[in-house]
Amino acid sequence: MNSKPAKRPVNGVLLLDKPEGLSSNTALQKARRLYRAEKAGHTGVLDPLATGLLPVCFGEATKFAQYLLDADKAYTATMKLGEASSTGDAEGEIIDTARADISKQEFQTACAALTGKIRQVPPMFSALKHEGKPLYEYARKGITIERKARDIEIYSIEIQEFAAPKAVIGVRCSKGTYIRTLSEDIAKHIGTFAHLTALRRTETAGFGIAETHTLEKLESLSEVERDALLLPCDVLVRHLPEIILNDRAVDMLKFGQRPQFAEAVSNEQPIRVYSSHGEFIGLVEYQKDIGRLKPLRLMNTAR
To answer: Which of 47, 130, 142, 159 is the most buried (most CB within 10 A)?
Structure first.
């Protein structure tokens, strides 16, 4: 009888190039099996239709995954103008049509109008939760839940290809942006419809698509070679300020105590802590009023 491969403690970040047709969770589980990792999680869901950059966190890295959810992102989106889809993408049924003979100038004007700080209503076909269930579960039953508009920012929309009814755009945006909704809103500004036929995430939190690895590549490697592709846990929080502490202060943090810290440091965001030997200890909060460091999330370095 074949037994399952034994799981092992794996710590680090894998930049996965998620293939089309897989949910983010299915892609995560495939990567987890390849690494035989005890614990894994991903940061920022990609729809099954979407491909591209999906950071996968193993072991201790899962403690810091939330800090990637707030990161800015970039996408390449392919739109089909003149057709509305029930899901906003190619997986749904075409439910309405309108003019598709859009000029590039019209399209440019609409993209410019949707650039900057805007409010966006999340789509029904999304993983946002309502009473514990994702919205797409309601949508599949024909139930519409009222959604509140959210503040987002579109930093730029670059037209990479345009030959109506097809348009390819590069979008740089803040967290919480739904590109399928953006494509529909661009079309609405012109007075027509649109849906996505392809979507690829190319950047998140300073990571780029060129740094990613496919499942096929991972399957072809040995375990040692796969492990060599993992990034250290602290890459997830590299945007935060850092300090170096002596051994005594590090030991205090590990025992849940709050060491004194006299240097001027920001108390508005978490701080990365390293030992004098360069070891990543975790994140702390600076309590300015008492001049002490409060442990937030620490690495478990017992193993």
So the answer is: 47
